[in-house]
Design goal:
The chain is mainly alpha-helical. The protein contains 6 helices and 2 strands, in the order βααααααβ. Helix 3 (35-56) packs across helix 4. The protein is globular and about 50 Å long. It starts with 8 loop residues before the first strand and ends in an 8-residue tail after the last strand.
C-alpha cells in the first residue's frame, strides 16, 4: 500500500509512542539497580489491574489504576514512599521513543488513541 493512499494513522499512546519505563529510568539513581525490574512490574501490574477491573465491571480511570499499581509496585520492591509523587509526575511526561518524531513527521494525519484521564494528564 502506498503512503499517499492512507488518510489517517491512529496509535496507542502508552508503550507505542511513549516509553512507559522512562519515569522510573529518570529516578534510577534513587531507586538503584532494581529500577528496570520495578518499572516492568509497575507496567505489568497496571495492565493486570485494567484487565481485572474490566472483567469485574468495576471501571476506574487509567490514572487511578496507574496510582494503585504504583503503590503496589513500590511495596513489592521496597521503594521509598517519598518517590511516589515524583514518579507520578514523571509518568505524566513520559519520553517518546527516539524513532517517534521522525516517523510522525512522515505521516499525513495523526490521532493518538489513549484511555487516560485527560483532565489529570
Amino acid at each position: 500500500m502506498k503512503l499517499e493512499n492512507i488518510n489517517a494513522f491512529v496509535f496507542d499512546a502508552y508503550g507505542t509512542l511513549f516509553d512507559v519505563n522512562s519515569a522510573a529510568e529518570n529516578c534510577k539513581n534513587k531507586i538503584g539497580s532494581k529500577w528496570e525490574m520495578f518499572s516492568i512490574f509497575w507496567r505489568t501490574t497496571q495492565l493486570e489491574y485494567t484487565w481485572l477491573r474490566t472483567l469485574m465491571r468495576s471501571h476506574r480511570d487509567f490514572w487511578k489504576i496507574t496510582e494503585d499499581s504504583l503503590d503496589h509496585s513500590m511495596k513489592v520492591f521496597n521503594i521509598e514512599l517519598g518517590l511516589r509523587n515524583e514518579l507520578l509526575d514523571l509518568y505524566k511526561k513520559l519520553k517518546p521513543y527516539k524513532e517517534v518524531k521522525k516517523t510522525l513527521e512522515i505521516l499525513i494525519r495523526l490521532s493518538v488513541l489513549q484511555n487516560g484521564c485527560i483532565k489529570k494528564l
